[in-house]
Design goal:
Blueprint lengths: L3 E6 L5 H14 L3 E4 L8 H11 L4 E4 L9 H14 L6 E3 L4 H6 L7 H16 L4 E4 L4 E5 L11 E5 L2 H10 L2 E4 L4 H17 L8 E10 L3 H18 L2 H6 L4 H12 L3 H8 L3 H4 L1 E3 L1 H12 L5 E8 L3 H16 L3
Parallel strand pairs: 1-2, 1-11, 2-3, 4-7, 7-8, 8-9, 9-10, 9-11
Antiparallel strand pairs: 5-6
Helix pairs in contact: 1-2, 1-14, 2-3, 3-5, 5-6, 6-7, 8-10, 8-11, 10-11, 13-14
Length: 332
């Protein structure tokens, strides 16, 4: 199977920059452009509309949307609207969402696995044009139906770290975005998805099992590391204590990182995560990045998402990935 290499970025830049970056990614042969959703960046679906108009081949989609913030009916509506602009190229990623961002907005995360599962079923049914009546702990829908753009081929991915979310994704999702950089964590997560899907009577080949890792690539190692530190800090802060223990990360340090982020002291958060960055991100020269991604591929992953920040200079980073990393991963 040919390796699929995709890109995820945070929409931090103005529309002309986003458009140029999307054109570049589309022309370089990457599989999918995922756009993350955080209240402090530009709107995810407006950004995806810009990307749709600038691309012709690459798949595009939100990665990920939290159903605590976005009602599943509005996720389905937005996805169907996006298919008007990029027919046959739209994917959708959902997940519980970053608990720190949710906390800042006053949202809690009760029963995350059940909520994401219910959202998955609702979105899938509404995309198919079905009428929905739902009464669950989180959602209530009464004769809800979307009146345009029926689609039966939009794959829905679940972003997952914890074992229970991984199991749920293995049973019901079209794909799972596994947000780890550590090889041992990626291996155990993939093994769990494969085992659970078999138990559920699904073929592993029917599930797109994706390693989703923050990457920062540059000819300058120090610049690459500097660019990825804030992303590693956010991932560390958003990881559960169970995940942190498996990664041998001090829980007290994690609390300090969370506190620094909540106080908007990003410099402190970055300094606290500097010694742990290799557990939460991949960075370095093209050779160093290739080596770590090859190690991930050797675990059985045939789809890897290059997550934010991509590099200190995203456009230059995309060229480095295309010329140096992608051929190495595909054995060319």
């Amino acid at each position: 199977m040919t390796l699929k290499l995709s890109v995820e970025f945070a929409p931090k830049w103005p529309p002309p920059v986003l458009r140029d970056l999307a054109k570049l990614i589309d022309g370089l042969g990457f599989d999918t452009i995922w756009v993350s959703d955080h209240y402090h960046n530009r709107n995810v679906f407006i950004t995806l509309a810009i990307i749709a108009s600038a691309t012709h081949r690459t798949k595009i989609g939100p990665g990920i949307l939290s159903p605590y913030i976005h009602h599943p009916a509005y996720i389905a509506q937005s996805v169907l609207t996006l298919t008007d602009l990029a027919k046959g190229r739209v994917v959708c990623g959902i997940g519980a969402g970053d608990f720190l961002s949710l906390m800042q907005l006053g949202f809690e995360r009760p029963n995350p696995v059940g909520v994401v599962r219910d959202a998955l079923f609702i979105i899938r049914s509404l995309l198919r044009g079905e009428s929905m009546n739902v009464c669950s702990s989180m959602f209530k829908l009464i004769n809800v139906k979307i009146n345009f753009g029926v689609q039966d081929n939009v794959p829905i991915y679940v972003g997952a770290q914890g074992d229970n979310m991984l199991r749920m994704a293995a049973r019901f999702a079209d794909g799972v975005l596994i947000n780890f950089s550590d090889e041992n964590m990626l291996k155990s997560a993939r093994d769990l998805v494969c085992c659970t899907s078999a138990e559920a009577g699904r073929r592993v080949s029917d599930i797109d099992i994706v390693a989703h890792t923050p990457v920062s690539i540059s000819d300058d190692v120090l610049l690459a590391k500097k660019a990825v530190l804030p992303y590693a800090a956010y991932i560390l802060a958003g990881s559960s204590d169970a995940v942190l223990k498996r990664l041998d990360v001090n829980i007290e340090k994690a609390s300090k990182v969370r506190s620094a982020i909540m106080r908007m002291n990003l410099q402190e958060a970055k300094s606290l995560v500097e010694d742990e960055v290799d557990k939460f991100a991949i960075y370095g020269t093209p050779k160093q990045v290739s080596e770590r991604l090859l190690a991930i591929r050797s675990l059985g992953y045939e789809h890897i998402v290059i997550g934010s920040p991509i590099g200190p200079d995203p456009q230059r980073a995309m060229v480095l990935l295309s010329k140096n990393v992608l051929p190495a991963l595909r054995g060319e």
